[in-house]
Amino acid sequence: MTITLYNSLTRTIEPFAPLNAPNVTMYSCGPTVYNFAHIGNLRAFLFADLLQRTLRTVGGYDVRWVMNITDIDDKTIRDSAFGSQAWPTALGTQSDDPKKNLRDFTEYYTKEFVADISAIGIDRAHLYAMPNATDYMPQMQDLIRRIYEQGFAYIRSGSVYFDVAKWRKADVYGKLFTIDAENFQEGVRIDADEYDRESVSDFVLWKAQKDGEPSWDFEIGDTNCIGRPGWHIECSAMEYELLGLPFDIHTGGVDLKFPHHEDEIAQSKAGYGIEPTRYWCHNEFLEVEGKKMSKSLGNFFTLRDVIAKGIDPLDIRLLMLSAHYGTRLNFTFAGLESTRKARLRLQEYIYDLVEHINFDVNSMTDPAPQAIALREQVFAELANDLNTPKALAQIFTFINNNPVAGLQESEICGLIRFFRELNDVFAVFHFTQRPVVTAEPIPDDIQALATARWEAKRNRDFATADTLRKEVEARGFLIKDTKEGFVVERV
Ligand code: AMP
Ligand code: ZN
Asked: Which ligand is nearest the CA of 285, by number?
């Protein structure tokens, strides 16, 4: 089935055609590992996961997916520095070697990141590589040298900068983002990794060593520029090394269009002579309770914060996949609750299907027209620029109109097969028998309190009876009076 995707480069929805079908090469800007991932970051990674799963399941492609780990940048250096408050206690004492501190610090958060993404259904086995930027030092240096040799970079005080003015004479700077000419500050150099479109200027490729910071030797021209890479160069170098240019798809959050992705395009074209990719795909932002997530508003959550509130990570995954990736997602706890209900409703339907089947699903060959039609409709929605809200709506309409009890066996088989395929994309359902929930017995002391309350009530000592009832309720149980006496239940 042909998949269409919104391409930020052409600003249109286009049919997707890889260069080397059935293989697809895809690169996603990964996390900066200086803290636990927040739920906004996770939306970006879930979007990439949704895309690669749809390409496999609906498009029938083999996907080679790379997501980098930014283990060197302004923030990782700042927070791993000797004496930093941000040093995790779990890591013990710091060393006085900045490189070792950086490595230990980023390895710790990388491990936590991998745990987080697996909790929300990203399968590590789908990732061809998760390269660390610091393991690609020679490749980054090689690219900077190429850019320099082509005349699009210059050295100042031990740092290397990309010469935007010169590049603008050779090619377009502003392919993903319209850059107003008046915003361009010719000859101004910017050292920060992140900056906004109001300060378009020469960006840093390599930063001169600062006291106490990790650094590497770098021979360029006839100088040894001891220092470390800027942020943008790592993605360009790793894409070239691991996927080759041009690769098929590049993903990231909309905030990365400028400067990060714009700079990636300029670097690859100036250094390797080829643009990195043909399809640039960006996810919109996640907001919490209608507002930009921020620590000062108290609406900033890591995945761990949300799980600690008793939320099932599968509901977080489904909530994020329920909105179209190109629209802002309003993450609310009420939304999580309705997502949970929807997920359990569909899960119950799947349990019903599984319960009704007493033969091998895979050996069923009879056509099952309803299941085939549903599959066609749902996959067509997914193929249509990953329209997950419409795909889910089709599924719910179907299950509401087709109770399992009224279905033929061939339909049941077809539907189980379809839901399994669907789960290769959504990854939130189980295909086991419905678990049998056995009620745990009521503890003896609770039973004794309830009996004492019953006695008090019979003796018309209502004050004591009330106190005892409250005590039982405070411990998570309910007393219900019946004709014969009373029963105790868990809340
Ligand atoms: P970082 O770890 O800051 O490099 O960000 C990792 C990814 O998360 C990038 O693709 C960002 O664009 C994305 N991202 C950051 N904040 C949000 C947000 N609130 N909603 C969606 N994506 C985000
Ligand atoms: Zn990147």
From this structure: 1
Residues 368, 370, 371: CA angle, nearest 5 degrees: 70
Q: From CA 242, how far away is CA 70, in angstroms rounded?
A: 16
Ligand 1 site residues (CB inside 6 A) read 29, 31-32, 40-41, 43-44, 70, 252-253, 255-256, 283, 285-286, 293
- Reading the block at residue 340, the tokens are 């949970």
Q: Are the C-beta atoms of residues 395 and 343 closer than 8 Å to each other?
A: no
pTM exceeds 0.85 = yes
Atom of ligand 1 nearest to the CA of 287: 19
pLDDT in tens, 43-53: 999 999 999 99
What is the tens place of the pLDDT at every residue in 360-393?
A: 666 666 768 999 999 999 999 999 999 999 999 9
Instruction: Please say whether the dihedral angle defined by the alpha carbons of residues 296, 288, 249 and 269, taken in this order, is positive or negative.
Output: negative
- What is the tally of helices (H) and strands (E) in the chain? 15, 19
Going from the Cα of 214 to the center of ligand 1, the distance in angstroms, rounded, reads 25
Most ligand 1 atoms within 8 A of CB, residue of 27, 255, 321 to mutate:
255
Q: How confident is the model at residue 294 (pLDDT cuts 50, 70, 90)?
A: confident
Residues in the chain: 491
99: CB partners within 8 A, 6+ apart: 214
Instruction: Describe the chain by its helix, strand, coil percentages, rounded to 5.
Output: 50, 20, 35
Are the C-beta atoms of 46 and 317 separated by less than 8 Å? yes
- 3-class secondary structure, 490: strand
Model confidence over 180-231: pLDDT tens digits? 777 788 888 988 888 877 778 899 999 999 999 999 999 999 999 999 999 9
User: ∠ CA 272-276-281 to the nearest 5 degrees?
Assistant: 170
Residue 67 contacts residue 51 (beta carbons within 8 Å): no
Tokens of 114: 């991998």
Helix (H) or strand (E) holding 122: none
